[in-house]
Design goal:
Length: 120
């Protein structure tokens, strides 16, 4: 049974500005595992990666029903690509299945998260 759906749209340039203005932005938004993936990329691919993770975590907390804050922080959610390049949750606080989709254009990142629990 689906218990939550979250969607987010983020401007990639907004993330670039936040990175420039706040030196700790990357370590606030990305887990250690995600930072390692971020550093494997170059140029625009780094921005797309961090914007995608930021947006996905926003989507997640909307589906979870709390928003980013004291109940769920950026560090509580880790999203890594599997061997096919598909993003998957490595860990997250929901006691059930969590599904994610990340898509981007040159300017925008759009993400959707669905939280599902077995039974009714």
């Amino acid at each position: 049974m689906i218990v939550g759906i979250g969607v987010d749209l983020t401007e990639i340039n907004r993330i670039a500005t936040l990175i420039d203005q706040h030196p700790n932005f990357l370590t606030k938004v990305l887990t250690i595992e995600e930072l390692a993936e971020y550093h494997e990329r170059q140029g625009i691919h780094q921005l797309e990666f961090v914007a995608g993770r930021f947006s996905a975590k926003e989507s997640y907390t909307k589906a979870y029903g709390t928003g980013i804050g004291s109940a769920v922080s950026f560090a509580d959610i880790c999203i890594l690509n599997n061997e096919k390049g598909q993003p998957e949750f490595k860990y997250q606080p929901f006691a059930g299945n969590a599904f994610i989709s990340i898509s981007h254009t040159k300017e925008l990142v759009m993400t959707e998260v669905i939280l599902e629990r077995e039974g009714r």
